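Possible race condition, two jobs.
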Amino acid sequence: MRVIDHLTRNDGRTAFSFEILPPLKGNNIEKVFNIIDKLREFDPKYINITSHRSEMIYKEMPDGSFQRQKMRKRPGSVAIASAIQNKYGIIAVPHIICKGFTRDETEYALIDLNFLGVHDLLLLRGDIKGPEISTDPKVVNMHATDLQLQVNDFNRGIYADGERFEANATPFSYGMACYPEKHEEAPNMESDIRYAKQKVEAGADYLVTQMFFDNEKYYSFVERCRAEGITVPIIPGIKPVVFRNQLSVLPRVFRADIPEAFASELRKCTTDEEAKAVGVEWSIEQCRDLIAHGVPSLHFYTFMASESVRKIAEKIY
């Protein structure tokens, strides 16, 4: 099965999925497996693996000069996706991003993923921080929609340089991102929804939202998307709050409003443990409400929050 098959089945159940971060350079995959083992009993239908651009460092050379070099701090999502899918038999969904990667590097990733039997992707622009490799559209994909066109071409048997090959028997299926509270660079919500529709019309099988804490914003967004003819599943992204400072950090970094009822409880917390408990309770109620509204899946962002996700899943699955 593919991710989209789980999202469109009509068995009345809300699918469970989550996103993990590759381990830091020098750590082994057991850290990833430990998170999956904690959450496996809740029958995850798919597991996303984030991807990050390499960082640029300056290395001092023997002659005293400095040479600019790329340094990868985490292993690539291709290898981890393959390891997860082979060990657990759960669909692995690597993130394929524009920023920090050339079109050729993206093509190599697609070739490897196809060879390894990983055919579900999440296509994203990626973090805008860091220097651009190039602004030449022949060298890099500047936007997620550009990346989408490259994947579509690959599915049709067209390499990045235009050369043709025999298309793979199993094409890539993919989801893309959407923003219930508007992307930070979008001038307005109408523009944001227009881009979401463009992604779907070009082949996105489903959309996954940025984290949000106010379900009414999600419901309003979905309603507006449906009015514009967007019919694919729109999966809510859930992020449990685990630190007191996230009351200000998350709205600033992710442009996600925290409702006053939730913010008021977080302000009462004197320790991170108290904040984590409040975050779990809010997420439980948030998820119960989403399930009551018939969402096809809940997708959890587990970074620094795998224990909280487990406590939430115990209550709702």
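Job #2 (started ~2 s after job #1):
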Amino acid sequence: MVDTIKRAWNLPDLRSRLLYTFMLLIIYRFGSAIVVPYINLDVLAAYIEANSVLGLLNVITGNNFKNFSVFAMGIQPYINASIIMNLLSMAIPALERLNKEGDAGQKKIAKYTKYVAAVLAIIQALGMTLGFDSFLTVDRWYVVVLITTIICAGTSFLMWLGEQITDKGIGNGISMIIFISIISGLPAGIANIYNGILVGSYPFYIVIVMLLFGLISIIGVVAVQEGTRKIPVSYAKRVVGRKMYGGRNTHLPMKVNQSGVIPIIFAQTLVLFPSQIAAFFPNNRVLASISDALVMTKPWTMVMYVVLIVAFTFFYTMVTFNPEEVAENLQQYGGFVPGIRSGKPTVTYLTRILNRLTLSGSLFLAMIAILPTIASMIIGTEDLQFTGTSLLIVVGVALETVEALEQHMIMRNYKGFLK
């Protein structure tokens, strides 16, 4: 990874992309220091620390929620909108056709996603402001309107930053924003653990357990993310005009986890969404009972979390890798899997391998995401509860960014060869 970054830095165009990405991320962190007015931050911070669900939201937003900055909602409305649009794409034929239209269709879906995200941002911002009325220093209607407008504008700005990073920078902009948000809370987390050890509130063995779990998780995530099953493919010889083509052997790479960290983010959002809404309205008994039933330490909540991770992994794998299209392309160009007939048998063969790989990758992701919660229940602390999820996101985004750099370098070499 370090070697890839060094080689990318030596190339002027990629160096410009890297600097542009860093600049936008620095702007994001500077914006995190702009606090929304009329909020009693001390009381709000104490309430968030006492609520584990809001604590996770605070981690994902990089302490923006606890400080109630202009980016208090983070990028969550856009993530929720993406979930809704992806699910609707499976149910609505018009959206499904747009998905298959290439770049033009994806641009239209991205536009619709922004509209849905804007509506969700307004609803969530209004809910946060009304739910946190006890933390307002001035109880007036115009204060509610002002705070709602400010944090909606902050989320819209983050969406724009993510688009700019994706188009003109390196990697997926939304993932990079979540990545830098989690990383920004790392120094404070280390300081809290260190102070806890000094005062005796944390046993020293917890630190050893966290370090071992982190090391094993990183190794496992890298192995699963980079793990690839190579399907042998042969091309028959064919004569076109006076030239002969084909007659070579190659392979078709199939990754163990083709969906990255998206399933973790989506599953986490769906499981904790009711609890987050309940936290915004602490006096509502119905929402409070739903929140109590969906506590992450409850067995059925953990089962739901695992099922959603597996389901989203399969869903995104089907979106990114279609065995029918792959088999059709192989047959069109005279390729075949040795020992497997072209056409439907090839589709069945690729589907079987894909399902096995995806199941293995999804179960590993679910295991890494759920083990810290089990460990926190055994040890009796909540500090480990979301360690695995955060680690998965950080390592996954780092690997995806390095892959994006390598793809840019490969494309640059192709352009130089064509010139």
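Residues 415-419 have pLDDT under 50 and may be disordered.
Logs attached separately.
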